[in-house]
């Protein structure tokens, strides 16, 4: 059976002993559980001409969020044991083992953007929970939808349960022979709304939760705030959503995710690449206006690099 190396069975005890020695490392100066936000891009230059500036904006957005909320940021540019969609699993595991001070490892795709720089994860809501992921119980468990949750953004607790969970999850995307292709056909048959390409981490995660119900109590499908929101319905409406909020309406989403855009490779799958580029620039500048506010500046308008004070 598939196991990430090194195999570890007593991580909770090891981590508890470490924390006993360094108790002051457990919380941030803001009194919140220590968290490492990890994002990643491929080890090579983007094929699409505007891909690299997109990656740069993406990491700036995360550095800004991390600085404001004392979340440590780790930027990955290598491929460890697993590649493609699966690249996140081994990195997350390495971070857990190397950072016993971190209570949570927070994965965020490079194409996901913080657009509410004030929002903080309500960690107090998650006692007994080891994974927080945007999604809906009925969509995943009743309707088995491939988009019933989104694996582009999630938090996973630094504990033995999570190490074991990563082994089970990683096994589904193990790369030998035709395994990934066969598994891709299998999950496409079992899940609704998926076509038959090789198995991705999101399909694997949903299948794991469906096939091993004992794992569900520790996995919280969060929908009370938007850890993920599909960019198409969000980025074009940012000014509108801000105005709605300012006149007493709901707050805009926490994070928006440029699913389908492939802004680094340029191999878009659903929408026009140009629209993706324009809307991602707007989303970054919308967040950046919140960062710039204390310094007395904002963008003249969302698509523009120019500022007004
Ligand atoms: N990723 C990476 N290196 C790779 C491929 C992917 O770091 O070689 C990361 C990157 O952060 C990306 C995420 O993994 O946003 C998800 O990969 P995917 O290919 O699914 O791209 P997306 O669905 O975000 O377009
Ligand atoms: Mn993504």
Protein architecture, described:
With 309 residues, the chain is an alpha/beta fold. It contains nine helices and ten strands. The strands form three sheets. Strands 2-1-3-6-5-7 form a six-stranded mixed sheet, sandwiched between helices. It has a two-stranded antiparallel sheet with strand order 4-8. It has a two-stranded antiparallel sheet with strand order 9-10. Helix 2 (51-69) links the parallel strand 1 and strand 2 (72-76). The radius of gyration is 20 Å and the shape is globular. The model has no long low-confidence stretch (mean pLDDT 97). Residues 109, 111-112, 152, 257, 259 line the site of manganese (II) ion. Residues 109, 111-112, 152, 257, 259 line the site of manganese (II) ion (MN).
TL;DR?
With about 300 residues, the chain is of the alpha/beta class.
The value of Rg in angstroms is 20 Å
Order of helices and strands: HEHEHEEEHEHHHEHEHEE
* Strand coverage percent: 5-15%
| Secondary structure: helix percent | 25-40%
Number of helices: 9
What is the mean pLDDT?
A: 97
- Largest sheet: spatial strand order: 2-1-3-6-5-7
Low-confidence stretches: none
The gross shape turns out to be globular
Q: What does the main sheet amount to?
A: 6 strands, mixed
Oligomer: single chain
Structural class: alpha/beta
């Amino acid at each position: 059976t598939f196991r990430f190396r090194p195999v570890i069975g007593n991580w909770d005890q090891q981590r508890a002993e470490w924390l006993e020695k360094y108790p002051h490392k457990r919380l941030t100066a803001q009194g919140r559980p220590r968290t490492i936000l990890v994002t990643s891009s491929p080890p090579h230059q983007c094929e699409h001409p505007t891909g690299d500036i997109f990656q740069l904006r993406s990491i700036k957005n995360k550095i800004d969020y991390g600085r404001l909320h004392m979340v440590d940021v780790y930027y990955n540019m290598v491929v460890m044991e697993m590649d493609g969609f699966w690249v996140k699993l081994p990195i997350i595991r390495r971070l857990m083992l190397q950072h016993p001070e971190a209570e949570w490892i927070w994965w965020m795709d490079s194409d996901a953007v913080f657009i509410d720089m004030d929002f903080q994860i309500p960690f107090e809501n998650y006692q007994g929970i080891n994974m927080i992921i945007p999604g809906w119980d009925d969509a995943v468990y009743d309707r088995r939808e491939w988009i019933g949750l989104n694996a582009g953004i999630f938090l996973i607790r630094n504990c033995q349960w999570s190490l074991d969970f990563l082994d089970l999850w990683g096994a589904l995307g193990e790369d030998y022979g035709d395994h990934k292709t066969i598994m891709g056909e299998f999950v496409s048959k079992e899940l609704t709304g998926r076509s038959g390409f090789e198995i991705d981490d999101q399909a694997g995660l949903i299948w794991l939760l469906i096939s091993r119900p004992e794992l569900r109590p520790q996995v919280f499908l969060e929908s009370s705030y938007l850890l993920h929101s599909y960019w198409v319905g969000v980025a074009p409406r940012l000014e509108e959503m801000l105005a709605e909020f300012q006149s007493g309406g709901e707050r805009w989403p926490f994070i928006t995710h440029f699913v389908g855009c492939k802004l680094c490779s340029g191999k878009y799958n659903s929408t026009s690449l140009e629209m993706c580029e324009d809307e991602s620039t707007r989303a970054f500048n919308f967040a950046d206006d919140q960062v710039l506010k204390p310094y007395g500046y904002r963008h003249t308008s969302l698509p523009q690099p120019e500022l007004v004070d």
